[in-house]
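Support case: iron/sulfur cluster complex. Customer-provided input:
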Amino acid sequence: MEEPIKENPQVVTVNQEKCRKSIPLALVLLDNVPTLIMFILGALIISMLTPVYGTFYVIYSAFSIIWFWAKICPYCSHHDTMSCPCGYGVISAKLFKRKTGKDFKKVFKTNIIVLFPCWLIPVAAGTYLLIDNFTFSLLLYVILFCVTGFLIIPLISKMVGCKNCEIKEDCP
Ligand code: SF4
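Agent response - structure generated as follows:
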C-alpha cells in the first residue's frame, strides 16, 4: 500500500501565500471556452456514429471534470483560492474539502488519465468515420477538434495559465 506522504506545513503555507493573486475572469474564460468547444466538437463527431454514443461522451466528459475537482484539485495549493488559472479551484472547494497527506504531483499523474478518453475517443471515432463514410463536414469537425484539443488548449495552458502561475515549479 502507498505510504502517505507527510505534507510540509511550511511549504503549504508558502504556496498558499503565493496563491493570493486573483486571476482575471477574462483569463479564466480563455482557459475554459476552448475546452467547452472541444467537448461540443467531440460530441458532434461521436454523434455521427450514433447519438447515444454522443450523449455518453457528454456524460463521461462531465464526469471526468467532476473527478478532476474531487480527486486532484483538493490536493492543489490553488484549492479554494482565486489564483487557479481555470477557476476549478473555487468550484472544487464548494463541493470537496481540501485534502492533505499525498504528493500533489503523484495525485495529478494518477488521476489525469481519466480525462484522456475525452481527447482520444473523438479522434478514434472521427478516423473510423472518415474511412468508412467520408464527408467534408466530418473532416472539418475532426480538424477543428484536433486543432482545439491538441494545439490551442495546450498553448493557452502554457502561455497563459502556467505562465502566470506562482507555483508552476511544483506542478507536474
Ligand atoms: S490549478 Fe489545476 S489542480 Fe489546482 S485547483 Fe486549479 S484546476 Fe485544480
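The first helix runs from residue 9 to 18.

Case will auto-close in a few days if no follow-up is received.
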